[in-house]
Design a protein that fits this description.
Distance between the termini: 27 Å
Largest sheet: 3 strands, antiparallel
CATH topology of the largest domain: Fumarase C, Chain A, domain 2
Radius of gyration: 26 Å
CATH class of the largest domain: Mainly Alpha
Structural class: mainly alpha
Strand order of the largest sheet: 4-6-7
CATH superfamily of the largest domain: Fumarase/aspartase (Central domain)
């Protein structure tokens, strides 16, 4: 069980929490609870001493020049949640929403944000009981943090927003009542502490990183299968080559491909001295992502395990520190970088598939990988349209790689005059992952088809496949049949896409 407040939240644990594979709860450690209480006390002390605090005794953003009368200070937090209730677009999935709640809890429990124990306990209850706010995905520029989407969590805590609970959409107050709980009354600074941070973009990007790692693994596997299908040259992946250019991730991808191809390499002579770049350079394409991921994960983990709202309260002295930690620049960099490298996987697999379906380059495979023979061959077109679809999905993925960060817009009366666009980048990264998974699903069907054609012809034997490729082939065949006669493949492709993103097809060595 993960205990909020006791340990850093790593990306793997976050994904497990999001998919309900890892239970999570608030720490009962007395030092953790004291840290929360001390932070809340700092806010109370400042108010009792007539201290001026941004967003507590003043309006928000450009309205900082407005002083809030003491008798209205208690009402101000609820107003923040209400006027930000203007999000649009799709609602975050249950998995995404759980990840957002978990990330926000981690930030609040750093002890800098001035929130009460009651608030973090109720937020933990929402995660434990799966009371999930309906959070619109659109409406954040990534500074001051994810104000609009996070307002749906703050509003839900106050009982005023819709949630998904036990399979039904209802007001959060109703869901709380069903669980024997009550909404919270947001105290001064608490709505701002909940909303003024990078939790949505961080959570979505963390989930995108997990998907990217799985896409990287399947790209390595299908690259090996493509080389096998065209009776290519495994020597392109010789360990000695990669000791000469020793990028660690690149070398590990090459080793994964070589391990898959070793049985074939031991038994066959390559048909060509040099295969085309999409095969020969597969480690150099996939390896960039493999080498980038550790740094991207480290940067994102730092963000997740930080206090990123404003203002912050020094845990020791209680001094009010006004800054800009809500700015999502680091998260945006991670998401923008990730989507570029993942889209490159689609481009690689698209070129490999083009090689497999074209008789000029496939080294004897049938046109469009059709499994039909004899008199019925002329009316069957195999993977012709699938290859067109792959081109479309690849083009869309590549189009989305434009960095979101360069589209900063000055907003909110030029108070937020430079913003991160991190939330847009995180949504782009997830969309790119879906498109690339679609490409990978189609490519996987095609490479399995090509390998089986070689087996049927006797040009390969089961001993040439090796255990990993044989396992992948068997896994695909549990979901889809060899394509002998033309048939719609859309349902199969959708199911394979989901399985690829979830890691249910290939779970190889982690570079």
């Amino acid at each position: 069980m993960f205990k909020f407040g006791e340990q850093p939240l790593d990306l793997v644990s976050l994904e497990h929490i999001a998919f309900r594979r890892l239970p999570a709860g608030l720490s009962t450690d007395k030092d953790v609870l004291a840290r929360i209480e001390r932070s809340a006390r700092h806010v109370r002390d400042h108010l009792e001493n007539d201290g001026k605090i941004y967003g507590v005794t003043t309006g928000y953003g450009d309205s900082v020049v407005r002083e809030v009368p003491p008798e209205l200070v208690e009402e101000l937090p609820l107003h923040l949640t209400r006027f930000h209730g203007c999000g649009l677009g799709r609602f975050l999935t249950p998995e995404e929403t759980r990840a957002v709640i978990a990330v926000r809890l981690v930030s609040l429990l750093q002890g800098w944000s001035g929130v009460s124990l009651d608030l973090v306990q109720r937020l933990t209850d929402m995660l434990r009981l799966d009371i999930l706010p309906l959070i619109p995905a659109e409406g954040s520029v990534g500074a001051s943090g994810d104000l609009t989407p996070l307002s749906y969590i703050a509003g839900a805590l106050a009982g005023e927003r819709r949630v998904l609970h036990n399979g039904t959409v209802k007001l959060s107050a109703e869901a709380f009542a069903e669980e024997g709980l009550s909404p919270v009354r947001l105290k001064p600074k608490e709505a701002l502490a909940l909303m003024n941070g990078t939790s949505v973009m961080s959570a979505l990007t963390a989930l995108a990183i997990g998907q990217a790692r799985r896409l990287m693994q399947i790209a390595a596997r299908t690259s090996a299968m493509t080389c096998l299908a065209i009776l290519g040259n495994p020597k392109h992946f010789d360990t000695r080559l990669f000791s000469a250019k020793p990028h660690p991730g690149q070398a590990q991808i090459a080793a994964m491909i070589m391990e898959d191809l070793d049985p074939f390499a031991q038994r066959h002579k390559a048909a060509r001295m040099q295969d085309r770049y999409s095969i020969r350079c597969a480690p150099h394409v996939i390896g960039v992502l493999a080498d980038a991921l550790p740094a991207l994960e480290t940067m994102l983990s730092t963000e997740i395990n930080s206090a990123n709202d404003n203002p912050l309260f020094d845990p020791e002295s209680g001094d009010v520190l006004h800054g800009g930690h809500f700015y999502g620049g680091h998260v945006c960099f991670v998401a923008d970088s990730l989507k570029v490298q993942v889209a490159n996987l689609a481009d690689l697999l698209d070129r490999q598939l083009a090689t497999l379906v074209d008789t000029r380059y496939s080294n004897g495979l049938p046109v469009n990988l059709s499994g039909a023979t004899g008199p019925r061959a002329p009316i069957n077109h195999g993977f012709k349209a699938v290859q067109i679809g792959v081109s479309a999905w690849t083009a869309e993925a590549c189009k989305l790689t434009m960095p979101a960060s360069v589209f900063s817009r000055s907003t909110e009366c030029h108070n937020q005059d430079k913003v991160s666009m991190g939330t847009i980048a995180s949504r782009d990264a997830l969309r790119v992952n879906t498109l690339v998974a679609q490409v990978a699903a189609a490519h996987l069907l095609a490479t399995c088809q090509a390998v089986e054609i070689r087996l049927l012809r006797g040009e390969l034997t089961e001993d040439d496949l090796g255990p990993s490729i044989a396992q992948t082939l068997a896994s695909v065949r549990q979901r889809a049949s060899f394509v002998k006669e033309d048939a719609p493949l859309d349902d199969t492709l959708r199911a394979l896409t989901a399985d690829i993103l979830n890691g249910d097809i290939v779970s190889g060595t982690d570079p």
